[in-house]
Amino acid sequence: EVQLVQSGAEVKRPGESLTISCKTSGYSFTTHWIGWVRQMPGKGPEWMGVVYPGDSDVRYGPSFQGQVTISADKSINTAYLQWRSLKASDTAMYYCAKTDTSAYNNPFDHWGQGTLVTVSS
Amino acid sequence: DVQLTQSPSFLSASVGDRVTITCRASQGITGYLVWYQQKPGKAPKLLISAASTLQSGVPSRFSGSGSGTESTLTISSLQPEDFATYYCQQLNSYPPGTFGPGTRVDIK
After folding, report:
1. Which of A6, B54, B58, B86 is deepest in the core (most CB within 10 A)?
2. Do B91 and A109 touch (CB under 8 A)?
């Protein structure tokens, strides 16, 4: 069974750093892209970017390039989303999800349960 | 960048109704369109890929069609568990992964 299990909710202050994780199992981690999707309160999903754990190739959506870092550790089948300096506007639910094939522009067929990030002073 | 619009943005329907949701792209995406269903507090669920390929386990009352700049999601007979928000997503043009604004389906 494919599983993506995300780390727990976070409450942070503006300017703080944060890394959230997505632990996967049940499929070949190194041959599928895994990505992150932001969903702000009451809004639709936004594609942030994806990483190919096999060679660490990363593709970012233009709104997120330079704002976050996406990475993966294939030794423990885990993907990460990192911020160096959080802003209040980063408050959102963040989902990790895997693509259904080895192509990066493919749909996400399995999703994590979401990690709520709240940034407030 | 490819922009997606969905219509309607909200619809109220009864159990058993036939429901059609349309997704329009600002440029041709030739079948690189997928549909997700999202219920409150849950992650999106992939329903249809490549405009018309039903995912395993998705009821056959769901169907997708279209090409070029327009795609439709049809629910042939709405069931109580179908009340949710539906999103299209394009995977053709860079940046890939753009989602539509969503269509919320509520109980009449």
Report:
1. B86
2. no
- With beta carbons under 8 A apart, name residues in chain B contacting A106: 49, 91
Average confidence score pLDDT of chain B:
92
Query: Which of A37, A105, A114 minimises the CB distance to B91?
Result: A105
Of B20, B44, B91, nearest to A94 (Cα)? B44
Describe the strand order of the beta sheet including B10-13 as a list of residue ranges.
B10-13, B103-107, B85-90, B33-38, B45-49, B53-54
Q: Give the residue carrying structure tokens 């233009």.
A: A62
pLDDT beyond 80 at B72: yes
B95: pLDDT confidence band, cut at 50, 70 and 90? low
Chain B residue with CA closest to A96: the answer is B43
